[in-house]
Amino acid sequence: MPTDPSAPVAVVTGASSGIGAATARALAGAGYRVVLGARRADRLEAVAADCGGTPLTLDVTDQGSVDAFVADVVRHHGRCDLLVNNAGGAKGADAVADADLDDWRWMYETNVLGTVRMTKALLPMLVESGDGQVITIGSTAAREAYQGGAGYNAAKFGVAALSRVLRLELLGQPVRVSEVDPGLVETEFSLVRFDGDRERADAVYAGLTPLTADDVAETVRWIATRPAHVNIDQVLMMPRDQAAAKLVHRREA
Ligand code: NDP
Ligand code: 8X3
Description:
Blueprint: E1 9-13, H1 18-29, E2 33-38, H2 41-51, E3 54-57, H3 63-77, E4 82-85, H4 101-128, E5 132-137, H5 150-169, E6 175-182, H6 189-193, H7 198-205, H8 213-224, E7 234-237, E8 242-244, E9 247-248
Bound molecules: NADPH dihydro-nicotinamide-adenine-dinucleotide phosphate and 2-hydroxyethylsulfonic acid.
């Protein structure tokens, strides 16, 4: 990672695993000084060491944690040019009739309120940078409702609404706003969703070739490195083996 104090600074939330970790590495490779945020300090430190970034513990559902994180970003780097809102995930795949309200609350708190909390806190520095960017990781679940997806759909539709409104509201300001909506990406996502049930998590990707975290990170890197006058508004990306949220092609074992 560049130590040049004039290099732009990128904050990546949920950088302790999966898409966030891959994005931190990709942005460091593109010349950013990267600040990595997540709750698991040990995992975060390992990823940060790998890409020369700054690891700072962060719980996006806790305003005090976000305030302390942003104060540390100011202390370490004094600026922020890019925010990647990636922290998030799903809990459960129950039908609406069986909805677990704690799971719904977790998804709303993490995906929606976490994103607005981080965006609100860093927006002044993003504007001040003269060429700020907010890139938010949504999902195909933000575009297409599916059975068993209601809680996650509701949260990611909410994230998409937030990102699209932000784009409208920042017109005229030097801040670009982008949304990346991936389909199936093999990370710890399904393990978290199914509460550590490895067999159930693996079944999500069985017989198909999913996206990798690096595939999504490369898209974020590409968006971030377009010229300042180019705003990539939305990207929908899926594996070739997936044509819709629940329409996938699986090969026999
Ligand atoms: P992972 O479970 O591998 O990563 C999730 C990351 O979010 C972890 O780094 C986790 O870190 C962090 N996180 C969770 N809760 C919080 C919190 N309260 N505060 C800070 N960080 C938090 O899954 P992915 O990499 O796949 O997920 C990244 C994003 O991509 C999510 O928003 C997800 O919804 C989205 N997505 C995933 C897809 C997939 O198929 N995998 C497809 C489309 C979108 P820690 O636990 O250490 O806090
Ligand atoms: C993750 C993709 O299909 O599990 O955002 O909703 S899916």
